Each structure stands twice: as C-alpha cells, then as structure tokens.
Amino acid sequence: MPKVKVNNIELDYEEYGKGDVLLFLHGLGSTKADWDAQIPFFSKKYRVVVVDLRGHGKTSIPSKDYGVEFMTEDVKQLLDVLKIEKVTVIGFSMGGAVAFQLTSNYPEIIHNLVIVNSGPDFNKMGKIGEDLLSSRTEFLKTKGLTPLAKEIAYNMFPEDTQIEMRSEFEDRCKKNNYDAYYNSFVTLMDWGLGDELEEIKTRTLVVASDMDYTPVSFKEEYVKRMQNATLSVIENSRHGVVIDQPEAFNKTLEKFLNHE
C-alpha cells in the first residue's frame, strides 16, 4: 500500500484500474475500507483512488491540525503527486464535507461531485447537529471510544442480517486513536460552506438514504440551493448506504456517471 508525503503528513492510499479518475472519501472514524464494495465494481471502467484521511486508518495521526480544510489540502496535494488533473470526487458523510470543500476550492479539477448522506454545513444542522455534538462528546469523555464504536455500528446496521457488516464497522471504528477521532469530530461539526455552496457549478449527485440520521428533506433543501445538482434516494437504507445497499448505490452512481 503506497504512502505519499503531503501537507506535513504521510497519506495512505490505494488505486485500481484505468480510465477517468474516481476519488472516494470515507466517513468519520472509518477508513478506505468503506469502499470495499465499490472498488471491484468501478475499477473495471475507471481509475479508482481511495485514501485514509488524516488521523484515520494508516495515514499519519498528527498532534494538531485537524479539520475539513486540512483534509481537503491533503487530498489536493495527493492528486498533484499522482498528476491527476480532472477527477470525480465521491464523499460519504465526513468525506462529503471534504468533497464539498475540494470542489469549492478547486472547481477546475472537479469533473463531477457526488455527496453521500452528508451536507454542506455541519455547523448549521440545527437541533440534530447540536444534539449530536453534545451527546457524542459526552459519550466519548465518559465511556470512551470502544463503547461508542459499538453504538455507532449498531445504529448504522441494526438488522439481524447485518451482523457481519456491523462487527466489521465496529472493529474499524474502535481502532481509532482517541484524540484523532475527537479532534476530527469536533472540527467537522464546526465546518460549513455557507454561501459558497451556491457558487458551485459542478454537476452534482446527492445520494440520500430513506432512513439516514438526517431526513431526506434536509438534502432536498440544500440541493435546491445548488446550481447543477440532483437528488437520488435509496430505500431500505441507513447512514452507511455504500455498505448496506451497495448494489443500489453502485447502480445509482453508474447511471450518473453515464449521464443516464
């Protein structure tokens, strides 16, 4: 697995296949393994790049310098090293925030933008965001990361048929460095694009699950504020749609890439 020095860290990444580039960005507390069901599907036609974002997986764990802006610059420098001049960026949850920021900062390199169960303003989510910030930080401080990982994994994959994906996600999450997870979380909840969202002209697909933490109406609202965005809702799915409904997600993304 290659690593590259960017932005004062060592970023761990993998790439597969050839063709137009798809860059996949994972969620908070996880790794590039979020995309295990997408890599074999899309690498048949595309050059697929997956990364562990800063403080996650096998990428460096810095003592400071966390947040969406740092992660965005890490990814941009990786693209520069790999000499990738045009990319479709697909971001899930926290990765969606990074994808939004990358598109806002560097619109000239973004071919398509795909946002998966995420939003443009984690700092303006109202009561949902306030409750999440307070409850999760309190949980972390009083009980620790291992019980939190168990609770998050159960909430994402509660069905009896999802025990394997639940245990795999829990295992990934509990391996996080406590400080890295905490710093990534609080800086994420302080991040937002604000009015910059309305300046994005990039062709955009927003993928929502019918049972995500935030309702479909939340995604509908910000899609309306964008210049060139469409919304697709995947049924019988929770937050981790790329894992719990991979076939439906892959088909939805494929259609978008094919302009169908």
What does this structure look like?
By secondary structure, the protein is an alpha/beta fold. The protein has a single domain, classed as Rossmann fold, CATH 3.40.50.1820. The chain is 41% helix and 18% strand. It has an 8-stranded mixed beta sheet, with helices on both faces. β1 and β2 form a beta hairpin. α2 crosses α3 (94-105), α4 (127-143) packs across α5 (145-156) and α5 (145-156) runs antiparallel to α6 (163-174). It is globular, with a radius of gyration of 17 Å. The termini are far apart.
Topology, pairings included?
Elements: E1 3-6, E2 9-16, E3 21-25, H1 39-42, E4 47-51, H2 68-81, E5 87-92, H3 94-105, E6 110-116, H4 127-143, H5 145-156, H6 163-174, H7 178-188, E7 203-209, H8 216-224, E8 229-234, H9 241-244, H10 246-257
Parallel strand pairs: 3-4, 3-5, 5-6, 6-7, 7-8
Antiparallel strand pairs: 1-2, 2-4
Main CATH class? Alpha Beta
Annotated CATH architecture: 3-Layer(aba) Sandwich
Q: How do the SSEs run, as a string of H and E?
A: EEEHEHEHEHHHHEHEHH
* Helix percent band: 40-55%
Q: Give the overall average pLDDT.
A: 97
Count up the domains.
Answer: 1
Q: How far do the termini sit from each other?
A: 35 Å
User: In terms of per-residue confidence, which ranges show pLDDT below 50 for 5 or more consecutive residues?
Assistant: none
CATH superfamily: Alpha/Beta hydrolase fold, catalytic domain
Radius of gyration: 17 Å
The major pleated sheet works out as: 8 strands, mixed
How much of the sequence lies in strands comes to 15-25%
Secondary structure tally, helices: 10
Count of beta strands: 8
| Quaternary organisation | single chain
